[in-house]
Amino acid sequence: MSKRINTTKRPTKIELPEKWLLVDAAGQALGRLASKVAKVLVGKNAATYDPAVVSATKVVVINAAKIKLTGKKLAQKVYYRHSTHMGGLKTTPLAKLMVNQSDEVIRRAVSRMLPKNSLRKIRLDNLKVYADEQHRHIAQQPTKIEL
């Protein structure tokens, strides 16, 4: 007689209803906000957490331009990327990115806090970041939360 092996049940699409959450970034520290948003995108705040399943929770972050940066980050932090060619290193200072694309600062911080696997891009698609209070997701009626 074979012994039955108990396995954990994976949540289905019905058990993972789509939720929209609204986060106001004004006055919040960048790293603390990004880590909490990443935790929600991964689904660790839900009882049905499964690392192999993408949660259906969408996060809308507003007021990205009013984020708080501690220490000397605004003057010293630099983002790097490389084209893999000789002399192909490109640098972008955080101060310049905050002026031109303040939403990209939050997106990069959250991206780097997500697990480095094939689900990262799918989870990042569930993140919507806007520099001011106006956003396009009024119809989804996002629930405002404090992180």
UniProtKB/TrEMBL annotation:
Keywords: Ribonucleoprotein, Ribosomal protein. GO terms for biological process: negative regulation of translation; translation. It comes from the Bacteria. The keyword Disulfide bond does not apply. One of its GO terms (cellular component) is cytosolic large ribosomal subunit. Part of the 50S ribosomal subunit. This is Large ribosomal subunit protein uL13. The gene is rplM.
